[in-house]
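PROTEIN DESIGN WORKSHEET
SECTION A - STRUCTURE
LENGTH: 279
TOKENS:
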């Protein structure tokens, strides 16, 4: 039986055993630490580079050049089975640009289909809620096979929780891990998950894009709105008129949701509706 690392088991065909690892954020020193941890977890020697791993640190180059380099590496490296991109947002200039986001996701799907590879990417959450960032985050939620959410515990700062926020195959129960004295992650066997104590945000699936569009066209029928409270009042009236009466607290969360999805844009204290949003 294969060994599990943080309940993760990987198995590659004989002709798909090369791993490409691209880090777009970390310094060379921290990339060395990442690779060292991976070798320790895989029980591989630390005094030699593993023959099946190619690790590239891309922090110093531009997004378009990063994408081109990764594209060339995937196309020209034999026997690639897994590609890891830590910092997928650094392959684009604007994470809220719908066209750029669609092109990037299209490129990832092209790679997986053309080369029959598996791709792992890392994308951060918004600091204010549990939504992935920008248009590219929305695209990932729509297209990814599995989206794992990795968050610090709200009850124990030394514990990190892992759960599947979106998965197309069989779901798994959430688990948690700690970093031991050797600097390696290990399952937090004694950790108990708290109840739903997080601040609840507006649900992505509560309304359809068409329902949002109808309400927002009504809310911003007279153009841009100046002031946070005026914006919330107009949104509240419009959604109620469309059959969705929300209290003040939920309207505040709704407005945050709309802004995170770039459906409503704030500039210099003025709020405007973006009809070209991508849900």
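SECTION B - SEQUENCE
RESIDUE ASSIGNMENT:
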């Amino acid at each position: 039986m294969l060994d599990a690392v943080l309940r993760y088991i990987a198995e590659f065909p004989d002709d798909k055993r090369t791993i490409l690892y691209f880090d777009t954020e970390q310094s060379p020193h921290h990339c060395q630490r990442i690779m060292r941890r991976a070798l320790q977890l895989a029980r591989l020697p630390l005094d030699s580079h593993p023959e099946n791993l190619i690790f590239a640190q891309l922090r110093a180059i531009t997004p378009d050049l990063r994408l081109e380099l990764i594209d060339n590496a995937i196309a020209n490296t034999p026997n690639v089975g897994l590609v890891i991109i830590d910092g997928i947002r650094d392959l684009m200039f604007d994470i809220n640009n719908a066209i750029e986001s669609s092109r990037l996701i299209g490129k990832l799907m092209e790679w997986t289909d053309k080369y029959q590879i598996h791709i792992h990417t890392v994308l951060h959450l918004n600091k204010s809620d549990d939504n992935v960032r920008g248009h590219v985050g929305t695209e990932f939620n729509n297209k990814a096979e599995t989206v794992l959410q990795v968050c610090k515990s709200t009850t124990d700062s030394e514990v990190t929780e892992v759960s599947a926020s979106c998965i197309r195959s069989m779901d798994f129960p959430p688990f948690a891990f700690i970093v031991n004295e050797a600097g390696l992650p290990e399952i937090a066997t004694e950790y108990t998950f708290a109840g739903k104590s997080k601040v609840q945000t507006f649900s992505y699936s509560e309304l359809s894009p068409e329902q949002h569009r109808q309400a927002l066209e009504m809310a911003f029928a007279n153009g841009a709105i100046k002031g946070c409270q005026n914006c919330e009042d107009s949104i509240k009236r419009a959604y109620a008129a469309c059959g969705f009466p929300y209290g003040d607290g939920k309207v505040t969360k709704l407005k945050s949701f709309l802004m995170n999805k770039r459906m409503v844009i704030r500039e210099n204290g003025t709020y405007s509706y973006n009809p070209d949003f991508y849900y």
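SECTION C - NOTES
The radius of gyration is 22 Å.
The domain at 18-144 is CATH 3.40.50 (Rossmann fold).
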